[in-house]
Amino acid sequence: MDEETKPEFIVELIPHRSLGRTGFLLLMGFIGVTCFISGMMFLIMGAWPVLIAMALDALIIWFAFKMNYRAAKAREVISVARDELKIQKFAPSGANENTYV
Question: CA-based, 20 to 30 A from 53: which of 9, 18, 38, 40?
Answer without folding.
Answer: 18
